[in-house]
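Quick one, tokens below. Sequence please?
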């Protein structure tokens, strides 16, 4: 089961893949961003076939984490979004 870390705004974001999950009327949308080696951003929007962008975004973030040797994947949830245990484990950064 993949492990993700709850985003803490004051934490050092170097070498971190960032994921933001938020609600749209169509479903959950996600933004995945990374700092190095080239800064990048990818948006996963809900569609009729896949109403939860999370189903594609989180595996993509884990792939980037492994590929770029990032220290962690930090997830930020909007207030109206609850973590689904099927996505993996969400732990607080220690």
């Amino acid at each position: 089961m993949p492990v993700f870390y709850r985003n803490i705004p004051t934490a050092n974001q170097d070498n971190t893949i960032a994921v933001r999950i938020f609600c749209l009327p169509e479903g959950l949308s996600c933004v995945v961003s990374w700092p190095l080696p080239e800064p990048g951003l990818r948006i996963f929007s809900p569609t009729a076939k896949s109403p939860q962008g999370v189903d594609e975004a989180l595996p993509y973030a884990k792939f980037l984490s492994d590929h770029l040797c990032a220290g962690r994947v930090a997830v930020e949830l909007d207030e109206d979004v609850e973590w689904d245990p099927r996505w993996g484990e969400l732990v607080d950064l220690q």
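The chain is about 15% helix and 40% strand. The chain has a mean pLDDT of 84.
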